[in-house]
Design goal:
The chain contains eight helices and nine strands. It is α+β, with helices and mostly antiparallel strands and about 260 residues long. The protein has three domains: about 40 residues, no CATH class; about 130 residues, no CATH class; about 70 residues. The protein has a nine-stranded mixed beta sheet with strand order 3-2-1-4-5-9-8-7-6, with helices on both faces. The protein is elongated.
């Protein structure tokens, strides 16, 4: 809570604070003892802390406002943390490296960004195998995810269940154009069309935009009510989750990982 930067300083604070000693029932604790406790702590404790912090965020924003946020925008993506293969053979990524993948759903609204679900897996399984765990099956929910979660069968399932989503298509995707939608000349949207992807039964919206570096983004969505401009803006907000991953890797010190998954 006080943002103490090292275990040595934590030990010093306890050893010199009689009130804290009485509260904890400890007269002293060493740096090595703290290190062992942290290393041996079960992950369920940290999961409980995360859930507690999420609840705190909801309380600060307000329950009514939080429900409105959660019903509108869910950012879904993953980030891989590379590990040493000799120390983490259970998380092999290829012949040379190991890693874990941090699948995350993040809520973003009004300048506030916070995660509300995280799943850790070894790096090798494909992102799309985890997509079901992040879908919010409630009225008005909108999901925005990267191409790693691109899955034709899931798109058809979402259409049937009324689950709204926005994502980018892969470069080798087969597209069948049904109708070209007129786009105003002064619009940031370069193209909009009604299309079928591959052998899918249900039509989707294809929206082409150009990013700040001049690259064309081909976005698909299954919501017919919101405008193409809004869909483009919503997809750009997906980069908020990239900022969260960047913060995680730069600001937190991740050194020790326990085995995860069914083979542990």
């Amino acid at each position: 809570m006080h943002q103490i930067s090292s275990l040595t300083d934590i030990s010093f604070q306890l050893n010199n604070n009689r009130a804290l000693q009485e509260e904890l029932g400890l007269k002293s604790i060493s740096k090595s003892q703290l290190s062992r406790k942290l290393r041996d702590s079960p992950p369920e404790i940290l999961q409980a802390v995360l859930n507690h912090l999420i609840q705190k965020v909801c309380q600060v924003i307000g329950l009514k406002e939080t429900n409105r946020i959660l019903g509108k925008l869910h950012l879904i993506d993953s980030s891989t943390i590379t590990l040493c293969l000799s120390q983490h053979p259970w998380a092999s990524k290829n012949r040379f490296t190991a890693g874990i993948k941090m699948h995350t759903r993040v809520v973003h609204h009004g300048g506030i960004t916070y995660p509300d679900r995280l799943i850790l897996t070894p790096a090798r399984p494909a992102d799309q195998t985890q997509l079901d765990h992040f879908i919010v099956n409630e009225h008005g929910a909108l999901h925005i995810f990267g191409r790693g979660y691109f899955d034709f069968s899931k798109f058809e399932e979402f259409f049937v269940k009324g689950i709204r989503f926005v994502t980018r298509i892969k470069e080798n995707t087969v597209i069948q154009v049904v109708e070209e939608v007129p786009v105003p000349s002064d619009s940031s949207i370069k193209r909009e069309a009604i299309v079928y992807l591959g052998k899918e039964k249900y039509p989707l919206r294809l929206i082409e935009t150009v990013d700040s570096e001049g690259n064309t983004n081909e976005i698909i969505a299954n919501d017919a009510k919101i405008t193409a401009e809004v869909i483009s803006i919503l997809y750009r907000n997906r980069w908020k989750i990239e900022l969260f991953f960047k913060w995680m890797k730069q600001q937190t010190v991740l050194k020790v990982f326990s085995c995860i998954g069914p083979d542990c």
